[in-house]
Automatic annotation (TrEMBL):
Species of origin: Actinoplanes octamycinicus
This protein's record includes keyword ATP-binding: no
UniProt cross-references to Pfam families, sorted A to Z: Cu2_monoox_C
Listed name of the protein: Copper type II ascorbate-dependent monooxygenase C-terminal domain-containing protein
InterPro entries, A to Z: Cu2_ascorb_mOase-like_C (IPR014784), Cu2_ascorb_mOase_N_sf (IPR036939), Cu2_monoox_C (IPR024548), DBH-like (IPR000945), PHM/PNGase_F_dom_sf (IPR008977)
Extent of the signal sequence: 1-21
Top-level taxon of origin: Bacteria
Keywords of the record: Disulfide bond, Signal
Amino acid sequence: MKRVLLSAAALLLVAACGTHDTPAAAPATSNPHSGHTAGSAPPATPLRGGERFVDLALPQPYTPQAPNGGTDDYRCFLVDPGLTENAYLTGSQFQPQNAAIVHHAIFYRLDPRQATEAAKVDEQTPGEGWTCFGDAGVQGQTAWVAHWAPGAGETLMPSGSGFDMPPGSKLVMQVHYNLLETGAAGQTDQSGIKLRVAAATSPLKSLSTDLFPAPIELPCAAGESGPLCDRDAAIADVGSRFGKEAGEQEKYLVEACSEGKVTAGDTQHCEQPVESAATIYMAAGHMHLLGRSIKIELNPGRPGAQTILDIPQYNFDNQALVPLAKPIAVKPGDTVRVTCTHDAKLRKMLPQLQKLPPRYVVWGEGTSDEMCLGILVTAPTT
């Protein structure tokens, strides 16, 4: 398949599913926009044939600190599953040690060269890990092989499939810490992950994670005013908090999705062409606290159109990947559309956002910014 490469953005969240394997998920909170869910995760599903568990965790607690006057810290940590032979990652269960401040986590697979580079960056950076807004902070393409967001429990790949893990592969665990909550300053975290690894004694279907973003052009709500209600000022503010590349992300999305035309409003969408044959096995949608609904469609308005995922009432605390009842085949010439609706009026209803100044909301890495992201786990069709 084809995805839009998010130059500064990695974007969020979890992986799990299959036609018969249903991932366990923590129950959603009664408030659909509370921001975080705490509580114990259910136990892992019993191992399937050829699998074993690998437990990884931060060696020392980390104290998040948001740079540049912001309220978000993206921190990358190098973790080593100790693989000496070819293997597959067939499932994962992220274990947020401090769920009050962990917004989401993404795991990127590094090849041996990238792992060496990451180790040098880690060694040269004081404390645990290194700052990494948007991606793994190393050169070259990295593979997104697992992620977590509130509401997700264990994630299982479909039986007979997994993410390739060559010998010597290591992982970058990128954690987004949200420090908006009162009392978050000074808290520590020592999160980890339980990996489900299968030996490559017999070839499995190789999976990939494809990202389908759309721009955010959400004006201030009626009755709101302030300097950041100006679009240019709001975009400059994103850049000041997360760097120049992050500040240009909205421009890239508008150019890719609407030929550079900015249309302000609650609902935005983006259509992206499929470039290679594949099968979709699982799907998820990701927004932040102002999200109302998200939909992922295949070939909308054309014969044979299908809805891949439809979440009419988005709940930030329930972002588990959804297993498709039946895998969906796609081919070159098909189109994937992601559509998101956000609501600026929610800002006054949410304790985390009430004290912040009104703003014109665009794509940004922070909890007070927004995202519109469709996530598909696929396998190539030969």
